[in-house]
Amino acid sequence: MKRATSPPHGPMMNRNAPRLSFPTRMLRAFHPVPLLVVLLVSVFILPPYGPARAADGLQAEDGVLDLRDFDPETMGPARLDGAWEFYWDRLLTPQDLAANPAPSPSGLLSLPGTWRGMPVDGERLGGTGQATLRLRLRLWPEANTLTLRLFDIPMAYRLWANGQLVAMNGVVGTDADSETPLRSLVLATITPEGENLELVLQISNHHFRAGGVPEGLLLAPPGPLETERDRTWTFSYFFAGCLLITLLYHLFLFHLDRKQVSAGYFSGFCLCILCFCMTSNTSFWAIRRFLPPLPPQWSEYVPLFFYMACAPMLFRFYYSLYPKVFHPAVRHLVDLRFAIFLLLLPIAPDHRISEYIAFSILVGLGCAIYYVVRLCSCARRGMNGAGLLLLGSAASLLASLNDGLSHIKHINTPYLIEFGMLFLIVTQSLALAKRFSHAFASVGKLSGELERKNQSLLAEMEERNRLEQEVINISEEERRRISHELHDGLCQKLTGARLRASILSKRLAGTDDSTTMDSLAALLDASTDDAYRTSRGLWPVEHDPAMPGPSLDDLARRIAKDTGIDVRLEMRRHCGRCTNPNMRTLYRIAQEALTNAAKHAQAHTIRVRLRCPAQDGVILTVRDDGIGRTASARQGARTGGLGLGIMAHRAGVIHAKLTIEDAPQGGTIVTCAAPCDRHASPSSTRRTPPDASR
User: Fold this and answer.
1) Do 184 and 329 reside in the same domain of the chain?
2) CA nearest neighbour of 585 among 645, 642, 652
3) Sequence-ordered list of residues with C-beta below 8 angstroms from that of 619, at least 6 positions apart, any chain
4) Which of 274, 333, 377, 477 has a 20 to 30 A CA-CA distance from 609?
5) Do 109 and 80 form a contact (C-beta atoms < 8 A)?
6) Contact call for residues 150 and 167 (beta carbons, < 8 A)
7) Cβ neighbourhood burial of 385 (10 Å; 0-12, 13-18, 19+)
8) How large is the average pLDDT for residues 619-628?
9) Is the Cα torsion angle 503, 504, 507, 511 positive or negative in sign?
10) In the prediction, which pLDDT does 593 show?
């Protein structure tokens, strides 16, 4: 495959930002990254990375390269560029070339380059086929042991030096079935005898769009080329480590908060970049030092797969951040580009796929330029993180252009794809970190505001509960006042009237008016009883001396007397004398529960139980053996029952828990658990024995 340029870029983050003046917005977008600018400049002026420049003016002519005046100490590795003898459609060995008569070359092929479009016998060659190349060198005097580098020749080849086979890659063949291509880095050791060196290179290409030697061959004494390879591997492992840490970090962020889709897409992009770089020529196939090589077909298309997958991931990363800045049509474009590649893999010949990859690289460069333009727009608007992302995208785009121009030999510079990708990853990570830090700061601010509002709401609820309790206390006092007024006023008058009616009834006995007087006396008796009953219902005259408020014992006795139902009361208290202010409210809840059971449950027995353990508050239970409630009746009671609503409200005022449920063996159970703010120690209290059941 052709050396891939940087993966295409995707759209930007989009969040509304304050409308600032243009200089202010740009400063806010760029001020956090002065060190990154220095790093960007240093990347492009860093000379040690990549192959050193060959001496100018040394070119092979007519298949001969004169290096007698070459000095590797000052001029670096020698490039074997220029015109090589070209034998088309023939796989010749050094013995074949030394035969008499020697075969005639088909022409001269300029390396680095391919034979596609080269005129031979009046016709232009296609990209596939097989050929033999030969170059004769005149070496410098100290050339005793040499290292020849063959890099990124995607075809199958064999190389002879002075008749000895010194390097081979894949299996050379005359058709696609017999050929096995393999892309790799080969450092061949050559020991020349004398100053003459003959190189014979067999190449077959039946899988890629153009056969030849796209990357120039380098020749140097032992040391420089090995050092360059080791330097490339070292940086590649450093690059892979940075990517792996970044990947895991953002993947963990996405795992913690699935709404942070930008972190998920960014981790996917890091994974694609990591796999692409470690399995491709950008790192000299560094992964092969630790893992066995893949089959030839897989080793070619695995890095291509990850390269093509970078674009959809990166687009979605940017789009998740700035959804309103970039056009959704670009997403369809990068997705279609990737989908076509997947469709071509199982059906298209390799050279067609190779042609599509070359086209995809151009599309990727166009997308990268589009993204940079859109990021400039985001930076002008002062959007959060846009400046950082613009720097990274611009650096990656420049690295891509540099590698593309260097690959086609328009410029002679080192490959910078990994530096560009590293810079892109760093700036994207910083942009995400900046956004997350702003988000965390906003969350902290909102949390503080929410805490203050919660405190205010809690204080308001406490004040409301205090007022409701005060209303209940006032209501109880009013009930007590009305009860006393009824008892001391109306009830006394009715009692006097009943007494006088009784006296008159006796005087008029045996007269015509005796019947009327007896009826009046009976009516006064009933009215007097009703008045006293109403007075006691509003505020019982009898109080439990061990409890605040009215007496449950009197309540149970009155309900039993008025309804004829067997009402049984059981009380167990931890304190000898209860001072819990909630007992008055519990009395009213018990009164309502007993009234409901007497009116609606058709009960024969009602059990009232009051328990006050040492640390569990006060628990009131009213249980009857009546007909119970169905689910529909229960739902209706909750939503529309006035008595149940009053009980629930009273329980809520004292922070009690009220439950109403059907008993397992029939009937209804009403339970109210209220807190108690005072628990006396056992040594200072006495346990009251249960009252006798009534």
Assistant:
1) no
2) 652
3) 609, 610, 611, 612, 613, 671, 672, 673, 674
4) 477
5) no
6) yes
7) buried
8) 88
9) negative
10) 87
- The range of the structural domain enclosing residue 598 comes to 563-684
Q: Are residues 30 and 87 in the same domain?
A: no
Query: In this structure, what are the phi and psi dihedrals at residue 668, rounded to the nearest 5 degrees?
Result: -130, 145
List own/partner pairs for 236-241 with CB under 8 A and 24 or more apart. Answer: 236/277, 236/278, 236/282, 236/283, 236/284, 236/286, 236/418, 237/286, 239/277, 239/283, 239/418, 239/421, 239/422, 240/274, 240/277, 240/278, 240/283, 240/286
Helix (H, G, I), strand (E, B) or coil at 167: strand
DSSP state of 550: B
Domain count, the chain: 3
d(CA 636, CA 415): 79
Separation between Cα atoms, residue 152 and residue 216, nearest integer Å: 9
Statement to judge: residues 304 and 428 lie in one domain: yes
Q: Does the structure show a pLDDT above 90 at 86?
A: yes
Which pLDDT value is given to residue 208? 82
- At residue 547, the pLDDT reads 53
Same domain, 382 and 239: yes
| Residue position matching structure tokens 């001391």 | 488
Residue 405 one-letter amino acid: L
The β-bridge partners of 271 are none
CA-based nearest residue to 368, from 396, 328, 404 = 396
Candidates 146, 138, 148; CA nearest to 186 is 148
Residue 210 shares a structural domain with residue 238: no
- Tokens 């909630």 — which residue? 582
Structure tokens at 148: 């020849």
Q: pLDDT digits over 294-308, tens only?
A: 777 788 889 889 989
> What is the tens place of the pLDDT at every residue in 13-61?
333 344 444 444 444 444 444 544 554 455 444 444 444 344 456 889 9
Q: Do 41 and 120 reside in the same domain of the chain?
A: no
Residue 348 shares a structural domain with residue 408: yes
Chain length of the chain: 694
H/E run at residue 136: strand 129-138
pLDDT, tens digit, 9 for 90 and up, residues 435-467: 777 777 888 888 888 888 999 998 888 888 788
Residue 97 belongs to domain with CATH number: 2.60.120.260
Tokens of 474: 């006032």
Three-state DSSP state, 294: coil
184 and 323 within one domain: no
**CA 94 → CA 53, 158, 298, 386, 665, distances in Å?**
30, 11, 33, 60, 106
Residues 54 and 77: beta-carbon distance below 8 Å: yes
Is 437 exposed, middle or buried (CB count within 10 Å of its CB: 0-12, 13-18, 19+)?
exposed
